[in-house]
Amino acid sequence: MAIHWWSLAIGFVLGAGLGAVAEWQIGLRVRKRSELRALTRDYAALAGRYAQYRVRDDGTQEPTGAIVEIVWQPEDGLLEASGFHANGNPGWHSYIKMSREYTGTGIGHYNNVNSIHGGLQQVIYSKQTRSFSVRGTDHTRKEFIHCWKPTEQSGPVTGADSRTQKEFASRQADAGKLAARS
Q: pLDDT at position 179, please?
């Protein structure tokens, strides 16, 4: 059996091409999965219930009575945050993308309930105080600063005990029905 140079060249080109495609497809998935695992390791423990405080210009913190529920979404690598007024009604909902490059920082877009308006949130998590410092801008470009501190009943929020997924959606639907009637 004789080896022909042209058959070696074709084999080399096809092998290199298939190897490049495999690296592109499989390597991309492996890198993404590795990134999601690292984000989960760093940020999944932040899930829980937080009391919201308004930070005044002089730095004092004023309790708003609102509660923020944070749920880690491992398949997307996002913190899902929902704000509830003191009476339990939903106020806003956001998805926050946490950074791997700048540990403890993230950015998200929030939407107000019953409105298409929302704004941007920049969050910084402090391990020492176990709290979030939140700087935001609403749709009118008005800035605000909040602090989210863990509540006594803070702990992992799962789909089974979270108001975020079921209650938020049902209250938002009810509010939409009321708005449609007016």
A: 46
CATH of the domain at 94: 2.40.128
Greatest alpha-carbon span in the chain: 87
Q: Residue 127's closest CA among 1, 21, 42?
A: 42
> Residue 5 falls within a domain, yes or no?
no
As a whole number of angstroms, the distance between CA 172 and CA 115 comes to 10
End-to-end CA distance of the chain: 86
Rounded to 10 degrees, the C-alpha dihedral 42/161/88/179 comes to 100
pLDDT digits (tens, 9 = 90+) for 43-92: 989 999 999 999 998 989 999 999 999 999 988 889 999 999 999 899 99
Residue 29: the pLDDT is 82
Question: Number of folded domains in the chain?
Answer: 1
Q: What is the pTM of this model?
A: 0.69
